[in-house]
Write a structure and sequence with these properties.
disordered N terminus, FAD/NAD(P)-binding domain, binds flavin-adenine dinucleotide, alpha/beta, globular
Length: 502
């Protein structure tokens, strides 16, 4: 089986090389010549979708301009999303460990304190370094960078109000919309980014709130709730749905919620916010059961509204050129990321699909490769999802609920981290690995990992899914000892046969 896989990957590689050389000749005829002011590719938006698309286009020899209104590159992800949140998750985890776990490991401090400005400073430094790094990559790859707000004049022209106050018209044979998403509020709630904050405000609070209410139990709300809970806030999560992170495998979700409850986060599920009163010193929320019923109140120093994100196309002039969107404003594209308007493409959070940075990046590369005449494809079923709490939750493929709904006969293999030697050695053994495989063929359908570093461990499973591997393929692959990855191997053994260590 492993040999077959290796042969397959070799073939794929050589096919890739062949496609590449063919496409180089085909696109060099159709694209802009040096000196022309028309670009081969114009990208509107410099987030993970846009900046990656721009760099890839330039690497393929296409004359490329990227337009970004923010003044810094990296989009939501680098500026107010993935990176600052992971910086604070790491710093707050270190504080929490120092306070609650170090003594058990024989490391003692007379006292441990939070220096919030220093913590925020480290986060800001990480963001600044990374966003500047992308500017460096633009220079290295000769991507032309225009700082300003882009709007369509025609399907091949974008007018840019530059951040310096001027205006420029950028022309392109192909224009990629990568304008991403923005925070979504709830009816009757006005975000002021002080006491009622979005994730952006929650990443920059100047004080640790005594009481924090998080409205919405998606991954962003739980990550930010966890940061502030570790730093000492009393955190209550209010969620309309009956479950936290509805897309998660049910069994994993239950254990995950229990773990967060042990960390003193409280959950009010099937509950909706019926009103918000900001007139007093504390924000007063009126709550009501989702199905209707008796109201109650909940007070907070800060309320984080984390009710999802909306595609962002304001001021872009989509109606001027007739680009079609769906009911919630997402730009509709075909499998080539092409909109209904010839030469205009869209990628990332602004189109349907998981709203994740790595998905946006995959979209960007594939879109540009197809513009360049190459074959490309992004399979959204293979996009891993990670919640970066502690323990982390990472998954790829189908949940058990989805497999059941498909009516596929399946096998499940599980392995608890309590039986993993590395997890025990480092005293961080909460969690499990769960694998779902098709009963008849043993082909892996989904992998769910709840545990420390799950976000790193999941990629072996992503690769396995991509190559159509069986659970036996993973089980027969030698894994280094002692590693947490051995839990994945044991779960795979449990799927097609029996694990050794339990
Ligand atoms: P964006 O990153 O939103 O970038 C779009 C860019 O376009 C923006 O910079 C915007 O200024 C610019 N723009 C918009 N309109 C115009 C215009 N007309 N002219 C010029 N420029 C324009 N995802 C993960 O995968 N992992 C995580 O851990 C993770 N954590 C997150 C944490 C938080 C708090 C948040 C809010 C999000 C997180 N995400 C995470 C989601 C991730 O940030 C997005 O999925 C990703 O940034 C989408 O990339 P994008 O390029 O499509 O759009």
């Amino acid at each position: 089986m492993a040999m077959a896989l290796a042969r397959r990957s070799k073939n794929l590689y050589s096919c890739g090389v062949l496609r590449y050389s063919l496409s180089l000749t085909s696109f060099s005829r159709g694209f802009a010549s040096a000196g022309s002011d028309e670009n081969d590719v114009v990208v509107i938006g410099g987030g993970p979708g846009g900046y990656v698309a721009a760099i890839k286009a330039a690497q393929l020899g296409l004359k490329t301009t990227c337009i970004e209104k923010r003044g810094t590159l990296g989009g939501t992800c680098l500026n107010v999303g993935c990176i600052p949140s992971k910086a604070l998750l790491h710093s707050s985890h270190m504080y929490h460990e120092a306070k609650h776990s170090f003594a058990r490991h024989g490391v003692k401090f007379p006292s441990v304190e939070v220096d919030l400005p220093a913590m925020m400073g480290q986060k800001d430094k990480a963001v600044a370094n990374l966003t500047r790094g992308i500017e460096g990559l633009f220079k290295k790859n000769k991507v032309n960078y225009v700082k300003g707000y882009g709007k369509f004049i025609s399907p091949s022209e974008v007018s840019v109000d530059t951040v310096e106050g001027g205006n420029a018209v950028v022309k392109g044979k192909n224009i990629i919309i990568a304008t991403g998403s923005d925070v979504k509020s709830l009816p009757g709630i006005t975000i002021d980014e002080k006491r009622i904050v979005s994730s952006t405000g929650a990443l920059a609070l100047s004080e640790i709130p005594k009481k924090l209410v998080v409205v919405g139990a998606g991954y962003i709300g739980l990550e930010m709730g966890s940061v502030w809970a570790r730093l000492g806030s009393e955190v209550t999560v209010v969620e309309f749905a009956p479950d936290i992170v509805p897309s998660m495998d049910g069994e994993i979700r239950k254990q995950f919620q229990r773990a967060l409850e042990k960390q003193k986060m409280k959950f009010m599920l099937k509950t909706k916010v019926a009103g918000v009163d900001t007139s007093g010193d504390l924000v007063k929320l009126t709550l009501e059961p989702a199905a209707g019923g008796e109201q109650s109140t909940l007070e907070a120093d800060v309320v984080l509204v984390s009710a999802g994100r909306s595609p962002f196309t304001a001021g872009l002039g989509l109606d001027k050129i007739g680009v079609e969107t769906d009911k919630i404003g997402r730009i509709l594209v075909n499998e080539k990321f092409s909109t209904n308007v010839s030469g205009v493409y869209a990628i990332g959070d602004v189109i349907p699909g998981p709203m994740l940075a790595h998905k946006a990046e995959e979209d960007g590369v594939a879109c540009v490769e197809m513009i360049a005449g190459k074959a490309a494809h992004v399979d959204y079923d293979m996009v891993p999802g990670v919640v970066y709490t502690h323990p982390e939750v990472a998954s790829v493929g189908k949940t058990e609920e989805q497999v059941k709904a498909l009516g596929v006969e399946y096998c499940v293999g599980k392995f608890p981290l309590l039986a993993n030697s590395r997890a025990k050695a480092i005293d961080d053994a909460e969690g499990l690995v769960k694998i779902l495989a098709e009963k008849e063929t043993d082909k892996i359908l989904g992998v769910h990992i709840f545990g420390p570093n799950a976000g790193e461990l999941i990629h072996e499973a992503v690769l396995a899914l991509h190559y159509g591997a069986s659970s036996e393929d993973i089980a027969r692959t030698c894994h280094a000892h002692p590693t947490m990855s051995e839990a994945l191997k044991e779960a795979a053994m449990a799927t097609y046969d029996k694990p050794i260590h339990i």
